[in-house]
Amino acid sequence: MTEKKTLRKFWGWGDVGQGLDANEQEALRQRYAAGYGVEMRGPAAPRAEEIPLRAPRLQPPASLRSITTTDPWERLVHAYGRSYPDIVRIFHRQVPEPPDVIAYPETEAQVIELLDWADSAGAAAIPYGRGSSVVGGVEPAVGDSYRGSITIDLERMNKVLEVDRVSRAARIQAGARGPELEAQLKPHGYTLRHFPQSFEHSTLGGWIVTRSGGHFATLYTHIDDFVESTRMVTPRGVMETRRLPGSGAGPSPDRLVLGSEGILGILTEAWMRLQDVPRFRGSRAVRFDSMMAGAAAVRALTQAGLYPANCRLLDAEEAASAGASDGTHATMVLGFESADHPVDAWMTRALELVRDHGGRYQTAEEEAAAAGGGASHRGGAVGAWRDAFLRAPFYREVTVPWGVVGETFESACTWDRFAEFHDGIKAAMQKVLREVTGRPGRITCRFTHAYPDGPAPYFSYQALGTFDGALAQWREIKQAANEAVIAHGGTITHHHAVGRDHRPGYEKETPALFLAALAAAKKAVDPNGIMNPGVLIDPIGRSVGVTGALRTS
Amino acid sequence: MTEKKTLRKFWGWGDVGQGLDANEQEALRQRYAAGYGVEMRGPAAPRAEEIPLRAPRLQPPASLRSITTTDPWERLVHAYGRSYPDIVRIFHRQVPEPPDVIAYPETEAQVIELLDWADSAGAAAIPYGRGSSVVGGVEPAVGDSYRGSITIDLERMNKVLEVDRVSRAARIQAGARGPELEAQLKPHGYTLRHFPQSFEHSTLGGWIVTRSGGHFATLYTHIDDFVESTRMVTPRGVMETRRLPGSGAGPSPDRLVLGSEGILGILTEAWMRLQDVPRFRGSRAVRFDSMMAGAAAVRALTQAGLYPANCRLLDAEEAASAGASDGTHATMVLGFESADHPVDAWMTRALELVRDHGGRYQTAEEEAAAAGGGASHRGGAVGAWRDAFLRAPFYREVTVPWGVVGETFESACTWDRFAEFHDGIKAAMQKVLREVTGRPGRITCRFTHAYPDGPAPYFSYQALGTFDGALAQWREIKQAANEAVIAHGGTITHHHAVGRDHRPGYEKETPALFLAALAAAKKAVDPNGIMNPGVLIDPIGRSVGVTGALRTS
User: A252, B259: Cβ pair inside 8 Å?
Assistant: First the structure.
């Protein structure tokens, strides 16, 4: 391992040097101090040498030595994902279970060799894309029944291998990050157009195994819809599905891979359906008196068969904090795009529908003028929201040391339940935030995606806790959030995945017989249960200690 | 069992009294005789008393006696599906393995009791909707390791139980046939709009477990897309998924149910997404010089994001035989529909695209005039094709005794392979039809559904064989068709299911490790392997004798 490259942060989002600059941090500090009426202070970001790591318990075979490392910085980078409790623990300098070895395979043959080694060594194998999991999905906390843990980082398997221009599809290696694969598709005139918030710091493989939610607010909401075939290395060998545009031959093999979160094997590549680059766009910000009025409009839009690419709805507080409103109204960001045809007819009808539901909007010209003359999809309320969206993950490493406890969680429910779901969750969160922190907290909601039969609401909360008690505070709040989401009829996750943090809810939401079937399926391809233990379900015969309770370390 | 109702045919499609009348049969006979230059004659349809059945090997417990029967007619009706070899065997008066008992549960509790009885009796349980399988999917030929077979017919569980008008969804019992569920939805102003060719003679449960293909040629091609949640009775208990518009929590449980073909349990009900009844429609027939020219236009349409409801493409011979053309050109049936908005903008752009690809069409007025003034979606080439489509399954019971061997098979492949796939399959079929029957046969193609990355081609073949050799002839042809579909990169079935007849291809197409995972999942919910043995995969530890070869009885 001699190659030098950009260093990744182990205490926060992205690479060293990325994030809020000093001025931005100071402005944030003053804003929070004013808001909470308390000075904002806390420990600096940890230095690697402040965190002692236990000695690696595994020794790679000679054939794998050139692609493995036990470098402390790398072990820290790969010790956690990037969730709130992950950042808390890092700032507390607590890393009791780092991976013993990190591997960077360059070929599928090396992935196979790595799993063979892990299996024979009695070690756990943790598939790793870019490590931006916010649910404990890449953590090598696997318990004592494993002789060690090997994190397999796919960053070197990042190529677009083949482009089929006729079928508009590409074969892409699983380790390709968003910008990497888009850059390789661009010369062909194509785009995957899958833009999760983590776009820059997540990979195709990660998107597929976590059923990532992407760019399109309706119709093609999850990466699932763009998967044409998959290729996965399991401990028992390679499982490759046939490239097909559609099939009815038995239960879909790809649908077992989608959402498998690394417990079946390591995805090495996939054939993905592509899009032409959009040439026609229309975008408009629409105001509503209330979240519920906006929700009724979203429902009408989804049931009309218009399929807007963007149909995000932000409640008043969320819109205000994104700079997309003055805090008096809910805001819908409505957009159509096409590479084939002008979208005027679509937008015209959509605007009729939102008007029928009390939506108010400016003309396209007024909106463009207000945005300073830029194209409407880049400027104004829409542009403000987009910028805030992409910057959001960088805030956590700044606010965690101040004792600010905050996270997001997301779900989906049917329309008939939505009002009760929304109000019930807000009430439960307000209650638990006050109980845990002794002060009122903030809980806001937006829709990230929407379906004819229900929305995907996304909640953000924030309250002032204490840095010392942060993990316990978070755990109590998380448990309340999980319980409220399930009690009010939602799914424990619409697109953040289950990982470790959502297992209690996942086990309530999912039929017990399906969990038994999934565990049996896992055993068929991973007989010794080495793949990503602790995530999603326990391997048969092994308990990793996270079932039914949130991690306590 | 005292209730009297319409008798179902056991030798053909639908109920006694349905099908071609005497005049139609005579016209068909003369047409075939002229075409093949041979008299068309053969045995009459069998009478029940001509077919001796072995004595039932099972005795239902007293508690189930009121919902079970061993009536010979019922045993004949449930002995086969409605495929070509099924009709051949019935006309040959060959029914060596009828079900021992037929059960008609009225409640889910009775379904549970039936599976408990089957499991404890060592009997196979065959879930049965309306029995219109064309792939050997409901056949109680389960081998000698079972002590008998119980066919569980869901016809009495046919209610729409609940309609959620806000989420536009309904809870529907699995035994509801197409017309039954549509009639119950109609007063609410809704429709499922799932119209497979078998619409009248198939059920919601059958559609779901076979991943049925339906009305929409693009976007919502399979029933899969309309399933919100499912409820299935397995030998180990009930597995019910949560009603959700979308989720990213692990691999989708519903996607394991979809395509499971009865090997995991009996679907009892499902929450289904509904449609508003369309108010706006546009439909047009478009001519192309060749199938390949038409295919290029379909590809352009699917990649344009216009989502036509109908986008069927018929090759010249198929269009001619459906009365939709004079046999000189391929015909596309293009249609848009909406309950929300006029579809003119959509149709206008679609017609530009097809014109760019050499498509020729009349104005809407010309087409309506040619159709005799009816609405364009009901008349003309479109209407002719629709009528022929729905009547097609009734022809088989007339032509089988004449020795006409004919069947359909369908697939899907990516666009880059389509030309080779199409030509390769036609060549392989022409070859095998000539080899088997000693004469040239007819093989035609249409697209039933289409995707941005490929079409779903549907083939129909016909040749003059002999009644005596029909089963052997069919088997040889079927094997060649299966092999050609797989060799040229297609799926063994896009929407007819795997059943018994497609297992050889299914086992080639599907990753071995997925088959192992599926078998393990089955064992977790059906430990003794009683559910629909012989279909899809063999239960672990039991061989039913159909793997890798077509059934020989």
Answer: yes
Tell me whether B237 touches chain A (CB under 8 Å).
yes
Contact criterion met (CB < 8 Å) for B489 and A242: yes
In whole angstroms, what is the distance from residue A505 CA to residue B249 CA?
Answer: 10
Chain B: closest CA distance from residue A163 (Å): 11
In the block, tokens 């307000």 appear at A430
Is B259 an interface residue toward A (CB < 8 Å)?
yes
Question: Are B494 and A221 in contact (CB < 8 Å)?
Answer: no
Helix (H, G, I), strand (E, B) or coil at A285: strand
- Contact between chains at A250 and B260 (C-beta distance less than 8 A): yes
**Partner residue facing B247 (CB), from A412, A455, A519:** A412
* A520 → closest Cβ in B246, B512, B521: B521
* pTM score of the predicted model: 0.96
Q: Which two tokens stand for residue A221?
A: 């909401």
Whether chain B has a CB inside 8 Å of the CB on A210: the answer is yes
- What pLDDT, on a 0 to 100 scale, did the predictor assign at position A3? 52
Classified as helix, coil or strand, B270 is strand
**How far apart, in Å, are the Cα atoms of B401 and each of B11, B28, B229, B501, B528?**
11, 13, 43, 21, 40
State whether residue B24 sits within 8 Å of chain A by CB: no
Identify whether the C-beta of residue A216 lies closer than 8 Å to the C-beta of residue B223.
no
Tell me whether residues A304 and B341 touch, CB distance under 8 A: yes
**Chain B residue with the nearest C-alpha to that of A348:** B341
For every one of its 553 residues, what pLDDT tens digit does chain A have, with 9 covering 90 and above?
445 568 999 999 999 999 999 999 999 999 999 999 999 999 999 999 999 999 999 999 999 999 999 999 999 999 999 999 999 999 999 999 999 999 999 999 999 999 999 999 999 999 999 999 999 999 999 988 999 999 999 999 999 999 999 999 999 999 999 999 999 999 999 999 999 999 999 999 999 999 999 999 999 999 999 999 999 999 999 999 999 999 999 999 999 999 999 999 999 999 999 999 999 999 999 999 999 999 999 999 999 999 999 999 999 998 888 777 788 899 999 999 999 999 999 999 999 999 999 999 988 787 777 766 544 455 566 677 677 778 889 999 999 999 999 999 999 999 999 999 999 999 999 999 999 999 999 999 999 999 999 999 999 999 999 999 999 999 999 999 999 999 999 999 999 999 999 999 999 999 999 999 999 999 999 999 999 999 999 999 887 866 333 444 4
Inter-axis angle of helices B344-356 and B291-303, to 10 degrees? 140
Q: Tell me, what amino acid is at A194?
A: H
Nearest to A315 by CA among A450, A413, A457: A457
DSSP secondary structure letter of residue A344 = H
Contacts of A224 (CB under 8 A, 6+ apart): A211, A255, A258
Helix (H) and strand (E) counts in chain A: 17, 18
E-state strands within A242-359:
266-273, 275-276, 280-288, 310-314, 330-338
Q: Does A420 touch chain B (CB under 8 A)?
A: no
Q: Which residues pair with B334 in a beta bridge?
A: B284, B311
Tens digits of per-residue pLDDT, A397-449? 999 999 999 999 999 999 999 999 999 999 999 999 999 999 999 999 999 99
Q: Is A517 an interface residue toward B (CB < 8 Å)?
A: yes
Sign of CA dihedral A188, A192, A198, A203: negative
| Residue where the block lists tokens 């009706």 | B77
In whole angstroms, give the CA distance from residue B417 to residue B421: 6
What ipTM is given for this predicted complex?
Answer: 0.96
Which CA distances in Å does A120 have to A103, A152, B464?
Answer: 16, 16, 60
B482 at the A interface (CB within 8 A)?
no
In angstroms, rounded to a whole number, what is the distance separating the alpha carbons of residues A478 and A251?
34
